[in-house]
Specification:
Blueprint lengths: L11 E9 L6 E8 L5 E5 L6 H16 L7 H11 L6 H22 L3 H4 L8 E9 L2 H13 L4 E6 L27 H19 L4 E5 L6 H10 L7 E3 L10 H7 L4 E3 L6 H9 L5 E2 L9 H14 L2 E2 L9 H13 L6 E2 L5 H6 L5 E3 L2 E3 L12 H5 L7 H6 L13
Helix pairs in contact: 1-3, 2-3, 5-6, 7-8, 9-10
The structure holds magnesium ion.
């Protein structure tokens, strides 16, 4: 139903989803076609682990509501889809909504002949500073990886080191690490809390002070353990400590942050814009780092960026391999246009992704360079994408191995 005040000039005529996995990660992209020949938009709806549910939501439930709508009514369509299912939010619904929302922003930019960041107020910076991940099976390997990234021009590096067992996050684990335990491939919080300060002590010793160091806990600690870790890392001046506690314990985050001598970054597991906003308003974060598609797209994310600006919080949007190049371009648009920008997580896409998605942002020498083309500046070769069909079970199979040495399941 088009609002009565809205003249049906350019309307949405088609909704399609494309799932492609050139890196073994299921990238979900929405394409909206319009009544103007040749005018279409692309949006990121990536939820790697539940891609089929997102596709079903889009094709069965959202497409009938979207077709016939006026492409200029981005906020109207975003709110209509948000409320249309009565029960709202969650990663499946919000990823689907994000695909439509971002595609509409892409169309808006193409109609205006402007990149989306100019629609958001224009550039506040040239290129976007990014951090990359350094990892290794040992502390020495991790630090050598970090040194190579620093030599390549990166000033911000995330450090993760492997541990006994298969559940090390962000780095290779060592199978059979606890041979006498009920689950020899387990992940030990005791070992983790002891090893992590040693990693950062060695990193400062080898890498010096002129580099920003980051670390991702990946939600595996209790609030008190998180404070213990944060205090143990104080001498090494982290840029941020990421996801110290699980989303089930976000109400404890303000007390963790108050007791932490290092900045706290959190938000990638937030699955509503309201819960992400509460991380800011409750004083739980120094940097907010949502997975933009999981909160519904650019329209809600720009509200969060404004909230961060007014609250003295910075942004660090989530963007490893499970964000499509379209989603990466949306992150960069926010980064370029927001005074709250802190740092951007970067991912160096392989050549095949650049071939499937012409215009994919280039990450090199410490910066991500956005496309200056209208809209997101990112296109999609659907024929090539089809040569890399979706994959099932990779992340789930790894997650099932993340257990304590006694065999109890741990958050992945
Ligand atoms: Mg993370």
């Amino acid at each position: 139903m088009i609002p009565p005040w809205s003249a049906p000039d350019v309307t949405i005529t088609g909704v399609r989803t494309i799932v492609t996995a050139p890196e073994g990660v299921n990238l979900v992209v929405v394409r909206l076609d319009t009544s103007t020949p040749g005018l279409y938009g692309l949006g990121c709806a990536t939820f790697h682990q539940r891609f089929a549910a997102v596709v079903a939501t889009l094709c069965t439930h959202l497409a009938p509501l979207v077709i016939g709508q006026r492409v200029a009514d981005i906020s109207e369509i975003s709110r209509m889809l948000h409320f249309s299912g009565y029960w709202r939010d969650g990663p499946v619904l919000n990823s689907a909504l994000s695909g439509v929302d971002m595609a509409l922003w892409d169309i808006a930019g193409k109609r205006a002949g402007m990149p989306v960041y100019e629609l958001l107020g224009g550039r506040l910076r040239g290129d976007v500073p990014v951090y990359l991940h350094a990892s290794g099976e040992t502390i020495a390997e991790t630090i050598e990886h970090a040194a190579a990234l620093i030599d390549a021009g990166f000033s911000h590096v995330r450090l993760q080191t492997g541990q006994p067992g298969l559940g090390a996050y962000g780095a290779p684990g060592r199978p059979g690490g606890y041979p006498d335990a009920p689950y020899p491939d387990g992940w030990s919080v005791r070992h983790y809390l002891a090893q992590t300060p040693r990693l950062f002590a060695a990193a400062r010793d080898r890498l010096g002070d002129d580099v920003e160091l980051l670390h991702d806990v990946h939600s595996r600690l209790t609030p008190k353990q998180a404070v213990t870790l944060a205090r143990s890392l104080e001498p090494y001046r982290l840029y941020f400590l990421e996801d110290p506690v699980a989303p089930e314990h976000y109400d404890r985050l303000p007390s963790v942050r108050a007791a932490s001598p290092v900045p706290i970054a959190c938000g990638e597991l937030a699955v509503s814009v309201a819960s992400a906003a509460r991380l800011v308003t409750s004083g739980g974060v120094d940097l907010l780092r949502c997975h933009v598609s999981a909160i519904g797209g650019l329209t809600p994310a720009r509200k969060l960026a404004d909230l961060c600006e007014l609250s003295g919080v910075q942004t660090a949007w989530h963007a490893p391999a499970d964000v499509s190049p379209v989603g990466a371009a949306a992150n960069l648009a926010l980064d370029l246009a927001s005074p709250a920008f802190g740092i951007q997580e970067g991912h160096v896409y392989p050549d095949i992704v650049h071939e499937i998605f012409p215009g994919t942002p280039v990450v090199a020498a410490g910066y991500a360079r956005p496309s200056a083309a209208p809209g997101w500046g990112v296109d999609l070769d659907e024929r090539l994408a089809a040569e890399h069909p979706p994959v099932l079970g990779g992340h789930e199979r790894w997650a099932a191995t993340v257990r304590r040495p006694d065999g109890a399941i741990e958050a992945p």
